[in-house]
Amino acid sequence: MSQYFEVHPENPQPRLLRQAAQILHGGGVCAVPTDSSYALVCHLDDKAAAEALRRIRGVDEKHHLTLLCRDLSELASYARVDNRQYRLLKLATPGPYTFILEATKEVPRRLSHPSRRTIGLRVPDHAVTQALLAELGQPLLATTLIPPGEADPLNDPEDIRAQFEKRIQAVVDAGACQRAPTTVIDLTGEAPVVVRAGRGELARLGLSAD
Prior knowledge:
- By secondary structure, the protein is an alpha/beta fold.
- Helix content is 26%, strand content 20%.
- The chain has helices at residues 14-25, 47-57, 72-75, 83-92, 127-136, 157-164, and strands at residues 3-6, 30-32, 39-43, 66-68, 97-102, 118-122, 140-144, 170-173, 183-186, 193-196.
- The chain has a 10-stranded mixed beta sheet, with helices on both faces.
């Protein structure tokens, strides 16, 4: 049975976030709000938790998991970023964008794409996610909370509780989120490639979906 934390969406209670962080430190998988939709998250360095997250989500090792980071300086510890990429990242963060970048050695090999050594990273623009990351003191491994076999993410914490309370260890309820996935941009080549157009506006980055 998962624990259920009702937090204020803009001023989350530190006591409740500490409890959620303890569950994550202990190897739990949690549902948390972001600026695009709810996400499943776990501790970056816990192999068993990462495998559980993939099972719950119904994805294999070729599916890019994402690191949720507090800011660009933290992101740069886990990805190789040149000046051109950095300028684009600065325009987009924090915000509902996921960037595929070349992973550094700080990222466990089992978490990066098995053939490309890449990782998805993003800096969410949500007060609860940011406060939880600050409490945890490191990035979270994440994937959009889309039930297996479905196309749309869940954005109602009560629905999440009903469907997943026996499979995850905690739900952080900050009310309904947006119900659109992040915009995914691959920055590993010579030019940015839009992998998925989502909630993040491409025009903000001077890009188009063509």
